[in-house]
Amino acid sequence: MKELVEVIAKSLVEKPELVVVTETETEEAFVVELKVDPADMGKVIGRQGRIAKAIRAVVKAASSKYDKKVIVEIMQ
Length: 76
Known about the structure:
By secondary structure, the protein is of the alpha+beta class. Helices cover about 40% and strands about 25% of the residues. It has a single domain (about 1-75), classed as K homology (KH) domain (GMP Synthetase, Chain A, domain 3), CATH 3.30.300. It has a three-stranded mixed beta sheet with strand order 1-2-3, with helices on one face. Strand 1 (about 20-25) and strand 2 (about 30-35) form a beta hairpin. The longest helix has 13 residues, at about 50-60.
């Protein structure tokens, strides 16, 4: 899931070299944290969070083969 979020985020931002994606695993879920340059934060979130919701929907669809939930957090 980490690679998927990284590819999506790098295609959206102006400074792809500053995109950092970390993945941690808990007992019930994978947590994917996305950090981007503050100037690119609006491009990743989108108007009214539409892009962020779309990223989460794509990751949820891709994670259907796993038994665990995948949570995508956009960090500052």
